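Title: Comparing notes on inverse folding

I've been comparing how different people in this forum approach sequence design from structure. To keep things fair, I'm posting one structure and asking everyone to reply with a full sequence. Here's the target:
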């Protein structure tokens, strides 16, 4: 199961790789849009919740936020031997049979209720809305912690997420880095622009990057869309260009042609940073989160702390021409899809064997030593 399948971003690409590992598995998700996901799941048996009747899109689905826990818990997964959930919010809360093995690949605990709670509340000026969200997030944290205790084993996408799962949900986990389709990218001629490749959300701190480049006057291209797009465009100077969402081929061209990818957000992992290196380009990233695990200081990029002034200084001080594209390519290879497709099934098998050794189910019968019916949720 995946939280929602409405478009094709980083988490959805991870889920696609999971689908390739278990090609016979049924898929479950709260809401699904075949067009928004470019038909990548059209050949699979996709089960949706009662929220599908509202026909939400990637722009409107957030309005249904209070209903998603009930939607996930409404699925009937009786009879499945294995459930692998892909969760950044609520998919890990699915209710399974007592003999079902449930492994959760966690992108991050629900950020708005946990690590991004204060920022989210501060962004709401209406005191009634703020009070409502405060109560909602309190209940959500209680529900989330209880749901987490039902999962047999957590696999996390970085050491940063691993620490959050331990702190917020009280669960240990194993790190398996997400799959990156490094073969989609290659080094090429470098232009004069810097690049942001991201969903346009407040927590991505793209406003910090825009403000920094307004001061620098250097060309910046922002690839992606999202609810923060209009605000960002209003504050941007003439040297900042917004493209909206573009095709995979166009994304690869922007990455290979940029002087550097700029990351201002504290990413749980940050697939775009690895994609940039797979295109032979360095990354200028805030010194926190998953990029500390994917970018090598001085070799494939640099780190900075602070706000727009500090970022502007980091851009001026960093000599992107001194970076060897081959170093970037070799570093990105550590996160290739093939490694993920080896590591995740191994973690699932380790979980099965550990549960079997503790007599989770009888050693005879249909569930002994095999998993006949998998589900991805």
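Reply #1:
Here's my take.
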């Amino acid at each position: 199961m995946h939280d929602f399948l409405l478009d094709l971003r980083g988490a959805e690409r991870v889920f696609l790789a999971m689908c390739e590992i278990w090609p016979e598995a049924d898929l479950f998700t709260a809401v699904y849009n075949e067009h928004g996901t470019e038909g990548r799941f059209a050949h699979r048996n996709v089960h949706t919740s009662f929220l599908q009747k509202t026909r939400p899109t990637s722009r409107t689905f957030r309005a249904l936020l209070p209903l998603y826990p009930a939607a996930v818990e409404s699925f009937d997964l009786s009879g499945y031997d294995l459930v692998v959930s892909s969760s950044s919010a609520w998919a890990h809360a699915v209710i399974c049979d007592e003999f079902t093995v449930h492994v959760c690949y966690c992108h991050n605990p629900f950020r708005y209720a946990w690590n991004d709670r204060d920022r989210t509340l501060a962004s709401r000026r209406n005191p009634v809305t703020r009070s409502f969200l405060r109560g909602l997030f309190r209940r959500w944290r209680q529900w989330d912690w209880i749901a987490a205790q039902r999962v047999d084993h957590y696999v996390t996408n970085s050491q940063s997420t691993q620490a959050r799962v331990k702190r917020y949900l009280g669960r240990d986990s194993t790190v398996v880095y997400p799959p990156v389709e490094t073969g989609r990218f290659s080094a090429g001629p470098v232009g004069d622009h810097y690049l942001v490749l991201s969903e346009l959300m407040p927590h991505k701190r793209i406003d910090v990057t825009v403000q920094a480049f307004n001061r620098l006057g250097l060309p910046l291209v922002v690839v992606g869309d999202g609810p923060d797009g209009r605000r960002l465009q209003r504050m941007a100077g003439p040297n900042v260009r917004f493209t909206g969402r573009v095709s995979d081929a166009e994304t690869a061209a922007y990455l290979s042609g940029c002087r550097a990818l700029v990351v201002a957000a504290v990413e749980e992992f940050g697939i775009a940073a690895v994609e940039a290196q797979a295109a032979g380009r360095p990354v200028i990233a805030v010194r926190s989160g998953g990029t500390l695990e994917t970018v090598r200081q001085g070799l494939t990029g640099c780190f900075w702390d602070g706000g727009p002034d500090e970022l502007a200084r980091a851009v001026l001080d960093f000599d992107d021409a001194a970076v060897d594209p081959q170093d970037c390519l070799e570093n990105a290879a550590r996160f290739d899809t093939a490694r993920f497709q080896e590591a995740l099934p191994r973690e699932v098998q380790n979980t099965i064997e550990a549960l079997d050794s503790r007599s989770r189910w009888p050693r005879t019968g249909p569930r002994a030593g095999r998993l006949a019916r998998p589900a991805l949720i």
